[in-house]
Write a structure and sequence with these properties.
By secondary structure, this protein is an alpha+beta fold. It is built from six helices and eleven strands. Helix content is about 20%, strand content about 20%.
Length: about 350
């Protein structure tokens, strides 16, 4: 079960309601790590001084802030802790407002506000009272050492708390010069056509009709790649063909001496996904490959990598190219003296 991010009480007037705060939104985007291609180990980040390039121990790292005029100010953690708001376990609702008056741009993060054990009747009463009044509560919450203006509103079977951005954090449209050219009058006929188009496509909103298709494609591709890599580790690879020495380049694949296996080049792998689609890219072994001419020899060349196929192989079959003493056409008779 998820752990609450905050435990306290909800208060307004003479009413105090013990509550717990749980995250209402959780990111499901794929987050990738940086790995070493030789052994798959995680890459660690180090604190390096930009002046001398040396690694800096954590005890010598301090916080700093650059002012608008370019001056830098250093502070300590203790000095910042002294400026934090006083921690409180009470969400004090100061007023109740019409939710239509709250600009959606101010909404930040949302949390489920659930009752503590034994407070279910008072919790249900407050949720029903907010729902019947059509109002939302406005109050303050201290979360993660920071004070947040917040809204408490009814949602489904319970209450949801949403933190709000400060007013000065919202970028004003007056700062955007591109919007100055949008005040021109609109032709009535064009407006009527636009309204008809909107009406024809109007429907009740259901977020389930709009899943995150990109995340689903990424996760499906990663699952297929994991299965393909598991198979490549279980099944031993066949010995390389004669005439293809270690380190020979292969179209679409390349040998990695550290792993002793073939892996897709990143650029060609991305091209494979774009051209064939993630549904068809099954990882390693999904595309045939051949040895490129002139890079490591060919299976049909008995001389292996010593020849540049097919040009020199063609010259080797020319009768007059046979070395002396080989017994081929044009070779001198060993019984006939040279003169």
């Amino acid at each position: 079960m998820a752990r609450p991010v905050w435990v306290g009480s909800l208060s307004f007037g003479l009413v105090t309601l013990p509550v717990r705060l749980y995250g209402a939104v959780s990111s499901r985007q794929a987050r990738f790590h940086l790995l070493h291609d030789a052994d798959g180990a995680r890459i660690q980040n180090k604190r390096v001084c930009s002046a001398d390039g040396e690694e800096v121990p954590l005890e010598h790292v301090v916080r700093g802030y650059t002012l608008e005029d370019g001056r830098q100010v250093t502070v300590t953690s203790g000095e910042l802790d002294a400026l934090d708001p006083v921690s409180s376990r009470v969400i004090a609702l100061e007023e109740f407002v019409d939710p239509a008056q709250v600009d959606p741009l101010l909404l930040d993060a949302s949390y489920h506000l659930v009752p503590a054990r034994g407070a279910e009747p008072a919790y249900a009463l407050m949720a029903e009272a907010l729902r019947a009044s059509g109002r939302v509560g406005v109050g303050w919450l201290v979360l993660y050492q920071k004070g947040h203006l917040c809204l408490v509103r009814p949602h489904a079977r319970g209450l949801v708390l949403s933190t709000l951005h400060a007013v000065d954090e919202v970028v004003s449209q007056e700062q955007l010069s591109e919007l100055e050219r949008t005040g021109e009058s609109v032709a009535p006929a064009e407006l009527h056509a636009a309204l008809e188009l909107i009406e024809s496509r109007s429907t009740p909103f259901d977020p389930r009709r709009h899943p995150d298709a990109h995340r689903e494609r990424v996760m499906a591709f990663l699952e297929r790649r994991a299965r393909a890599q598991a198979r490549s580790r279980r099944v031993p690879r066949a010995a390389p063909e004669m005439g293809a020495p270690a380190g020979a380049k292969v179209r679409g694949l390349e040998a990695t001496p550290a792993e002793g296996a073939l892996r897709l080049r990143p650029r060609l792998a991305a091209r494979e996904v774009r051209e064939r689609g993630p549904e068809d890219s099954g990882g390693l072994g999904s595309k045939p490959f051949r040895v490129e001419p002139g890079e490591g020899g060919t299976p049909d060349d008995p001389r292996g990598a010593s020849a540049s196929w097919p040009h020199e192989a063609h010259e080797a079959t020319t009768p007059y190219a046979t070395p002396e003493g080989s017994g081929g056409l044009g070779a001198p008779d060993p019984k006939k003296p040279r003169g």
